């Protein structure tokens, strides 16, 4: 068993991490951190628990500690980070420098050239960027990121289409309110409404997808050459980001060929990777957030509604934003780090 810690354990993503890690076949929760206001309190008192299962009994009494190297035991080599990005930017490098391996969900440093941005089923080879990171920064530990939840939803489907030579992608999202955190969007803002603005989200989808599908030559990652244009919208669903994608490829691809490429796209041999990575629906009105977000325990991506357009194909895809798009993505990256010998 690898003893692990969770940074930002009292937050929405932190609570999902606890749900996914207790129990886990390879990991044992040994440290929980949060802000100085929560430090020193037992977890059940520090966290306003809102997850849809009780706090695991052996987690409830763990004392929350500050998010700093001195507060985290040395025999906890792997940390899952779900900190606000401004806090992550400050503290994650100090933890990596102190020897901890950090699998982070926060958005800071995702596009740094020496920080691997990884979806294990898509670009596991990018983990080796950590060698460059250690050389350049002199760290004993490491910092690895998972992408933004909207990016994670779309990118596996693009990876499957890339065998036809992706040239340009346009995407419009319908994103669940949980992506903004528990108090991110008020009920008065979102009920009977849709909000066509999520700060910074379009830019993240446009850049992170090109890094994920980029090639790594052992020294640096070259971004994929496709053009990506995104438009991001918040709608009143609780969980599950639905996305409408238009893709143009160098070689002509029919809707049936696109669906077959996605259905055949392999999963990864890791405990949290679903047996079927991309589920393809034949029904034109699927996937739908409420019906399909929990496929593969919330770790599968689904796609459907394939049709030809004048210059390519159009389809829809979906993933659970706080599981596959956040906490589950970090856990999967932690499993890959162990598998590859970085922990
Ligand atoms: N919600 C989602 O679906 C997604 C979120 N993310 C990203 O994950 C991260 C966490 O999001 P979320 O869980 O929603 O956020 P929350 O606001 O719910 O939780 C934030 C966590 O960070 C802790 N924290 C806040 N300030 C500090 C500080 N100064 N020092 C140490 N710890 C601190 C909080 O502790 P305390 O309780 O003590 O304040 C809490 O544990 C963010 O970067 C977010 O952008 C990414 C994808 C999806
Ligand atoms: N912005 C995403 C959630 C999020 O926090 O993304 P990031 O990990 O890039 O900060 C959403 O609103 O659904």
Task: Name its key features.
Rossmann fold, 14 strands, oxidoreductase, NAD(P)-bd_dom_sf, binds NADPH dihydro-nicotinamide-adenine-dinucleotide phosphate, 6-stranded parallel sheet, alpha/beta, Aspartate-semialdehyde dehydrogenase, Dihydrodipicolinate Reductase, domain 2, NADP, 2 domains, EC 1.2.1.11, 6-stranded mixed sheet, binds aspartyl phosphate, 343 residues
Account of the protein in words:
The structure is a single chain. The protein is an alpha/beta fold and 343 residues long. It has 11 helices and 14 strands. It folds into 2 domains: 2-147 and 326-339, NAD(P)-binding Rossmann-like Domain (Rossmann fold); 149-320, Dihydrodipicolinate Reductase, domain 2. It has helices at residues 12-21, 43-46, 57-60, 85-97, 129-137, 149-161, 187-190, 201-212, 255-264, 289-292, 323-339, and strands at residues 2-7, 27-34, 65-66, 78-81, 101-104, 142-145, 166-174, 215-216, 221-222, 227-231, 241-249, 278-280, 301-308, 313-319. The strands form 3 sheets. The protein has a 6-stranded parallel β-sheet with strand order 3-2-1-4-5-6, with helices on both faces. Strands 10-7-11-14-13-12 form a 6-stranded mixed β-sheet. Strands 8-9 form a two-stranded antiparallel sheet. Bound molecules: NADPH dihydro-nicotinamide-adenine-dinucleotide phosphate and aspartyl phosphate (PHD). This is Aspartate-semialdehyde dehydrogenase.
